[in-house]
Design goal:
mainly alpha, 11 helices, 3-stranded mixed β-sheet, two-stranded antiparallel ribbon
Length: about 280
């Protein structure tokens, strides 16, 4: 890496946890930031689970205490229920998801032949609903779409993230890599600034994670709800005061493609719990 990093030591006492502020910017030492290449990705790989306190870890481990499991149960019910003008259920085509869908989620995003573009798992479910059930696709945070995504991902819990090697995804994945490294917004920060360079350090009372996507959809205590990866990325964009992309924009899928390559091998944790 070329260029020197100058970190200014300042008190953290006035900083608060939440969206990134100028105080956060100073506390992390981004003033006088480097010129030159972005540092290599994090090593060794560590799930965000490892940065949490024991109480939150225990909540995720215990299906009876994990609030995200409510959405999984809803998704299981929706899987077998007829929907849309076609009055067809997901199970009519795919039978028992616990068997036919196991191993599917770790390979998403994947290429969609009809639209000739990559789609994430949530978008695939939305396309199936509109194409085959003639039902409303819904937004990424639509309760039914979110629940079905959580259920389909949950049946692969514990399996390693395994990015699809389809060469048609390569360009989109490289755009995601570039987005991860690009400074954006009024605060001129990139994803890599936090999650490659400063992971493991403290931001107020929280530990900065490596920023992996292996737990989504996940239940975030801050939200008091289950949420998609798109919701988390929208929060990051708003936090650095950048323009927020519209729902299901190509940039979200491109970033997820890169994130899954970056975190390949980590176990799927859906539904994860995070602070």
């Amino acid at each position: 890496m070329s260029g020197a990093v100058r970190v200014h030591r300042v008190p953290r006492a006035r900083c608060t946890v939440g969206p990134i502020t100028r105080c956060t910017l100073t506390a992390l030492g981004f003033i006088g930031w480097m010129s030159g290449a972005i540092a290599a990705g994090p090593s060794p790989l560590r799930s965000g689970f490892e940065t949490m306190g024991p109480t939150t870890q225990a909540m995720q481990r215990d299906d009876a205490a994990n609030p995200g499991m409510l959405a999984v149960s809803t998704g299981e019910r929706l899987w077998g229920a007829a929907a849309g003008a076609a009055q067809r259920a997901c199970a009519d085509c795919h039978q028992d998801a616990r068997q036919t869908m196991r191993g599917v989620a770790p390979r998403y995003p994947r290429w969609d032949e009809r639209s000739a573009r990559p789609v994430d798992l949530s978008m695939r479910i939305a396309l199936c609903r509109s194409r085959h059930q003639q039902a409303e696709a819904g937004s990424p945070e639509d309760p039914q779409r979110l629940a079905l995504t959580a259920y389909v991902a949950h049946v692969s819990r514990g399996l390693p993230v395994q990015p699809d090697a389809d060469p048609r995804l390569d360009r989109a994945r490289e755009r995601g890599r570039a987005q991860f490294a690009q400074r954006i917004g009024q605060l001129s920060l990139s994803c890599a600034d936090c999650h490659d360079t400063y992971w493991g350090r403290q931001l107020g009372s929280s530990t900065i994670p490596q920023g992996h996507a292996n737990g989504y959809p996940l239940y975030r205590l801050e939200w008091q709800a289950l949420g998609s990866l798109q919701r988390r990325l929208r929060g990051c964009l708003a936090g650095v005061r950048a323009e927020v992309w519209p729902a299901d924009a190509a940039q979200y899928v491109e970033l997820e493609l890169f994130l899954n390559q970056r975190g390949a091998g980590l176990p799927l944790e859906v539904p994860a719990v995070r602070p």
